[in-house]
Predict the structure.
Amino acid sequence: MKKFLGLLGDLWHAGGTGGLNWHVHAYSASRAWLGTISEIARFLQQVQPQAHELVLVGASAGWMMPPSWLSRFDRIDAYDIDPLAARLFRWRHGESLRAHGIALHMHRQDALASLPELLQRHPRACLWFDNLLGQHRYRVRDEARAEQEITDLKHQLQGRNWGSVHDLYSGPTQHMAWADRITTLTRAGVDAGQLNSQQAQTLLQDVGAKDVWSDHLTSQVFAPGTPTTLIPWRFKDHHCHWLQAGWVQGRKL
Ligand SMILES: C[S@@+](CC[C@H](N)C(=O)[O-])C[C@H]1O[C@@H](n2cnc3c(N)ncnc32)[C@H](O)[C@@H]1O
């Protein structure tokens, strides 16, 4: 019985960050998310890794992943803990990847817990953390540990080409007129990862945030000075996220 309930829990929310719950919402919100999806595509378009192999972490079904960026690789190893991810990712991206002759390998595995092993297994690949680091604190349910592990990631990845898009902050909003404002701030070069809490609060007020917003403990994913882009994501009506996207050029492959 316990095993069965565990399986049901996995299917429904995959450790709290994916699962059927996420897929149903992502499918039904796909039109509303078009702006965010194209901002992510715009960001990835200017990321031109020389690697021919990609390790995609937190692939899910690739609801927000532009097929054009995937098609630049020869081989993709996609990792997710969600039991539904492999089937749905193949459904959404399989045909286009096959048409481009790209080898796709899906793995059901906790890629953060086994990162050293993954790095050894894929020595020539670049890595993209696809919107999962912001959920780490909710998975491990220990803020100090989550923040430390997220902060340490860049040291584990030293010398590699890698990037991430992840939640910085999220919470309720009273109006939606904030997307332009964030885009402007990004263009003005605001380093979202280096905001102090006072600056962050001011920015949240500027964008119509109300009540208390969650800090996803991801402000130290990138080393100071790494160029990053802020991307607004209206996750649900009146509930929004600030995503941060960045890429680290580790070494020539
Ligand atoms: C917000 S969803 C990602 C969305 C996905 N990139 C897309 O475009 O559809 C986060 C995903 O990360 C996965 N995930 C969370 N922690 C993980 C871990 N430690 N290792 C592998 N996958 C993980 C979850 O199962 C979930 O599918």
User: Anything to note?
Assistant: The pocket of S-adenosylmethionine is lined by residues 14, 17-18, 22, 26, 57-65, 79-82, 85, 110-112, 130-132, 135, 139 (CB under 6 Å).
